[in-house]
Amino acid sequence: MKKLFVDTNIVLDLLSQRINFFEASQDFFTQAIDLNIKLVVSTLTSAKTHYILKEQLKMGTVRSSLRKFKTLVEVASFDDKILELALEEEFRDFEDGIQYYIAIENACEAIITRNKKDFKKSIIPVLNATEFLKLII
To answer: What is the DSSP letter of 15?
Structure first.
């Protein structure tokens, strides 16, 4: 796999060092970067991550973390087409619909998430970080 879409929960696991999830997310990012796999996140992920982290960390720390993180990933935006696709689909979570179509429109080969059930209709593989690591090791 050369290009993966990373869902918000994996980013938050890493940046907020979530107990029980940090190690897998850290290993995922390390291995993917070492293998020169392009990692894609959405502008939606950036905004949501900032919003959640500012409740846990000082503002300067949040912005510094996001600046550093941004160097590891490609940030993909969404436009009217993606919004329309997400509105037409029956994703239980509208945000997941947006994330899914950003992954599709950016030719990602898989989605990495902890909430696989949210992407039941996916036409590309949906893996959690541990499953991905087992595939490449």
So the answer is: H
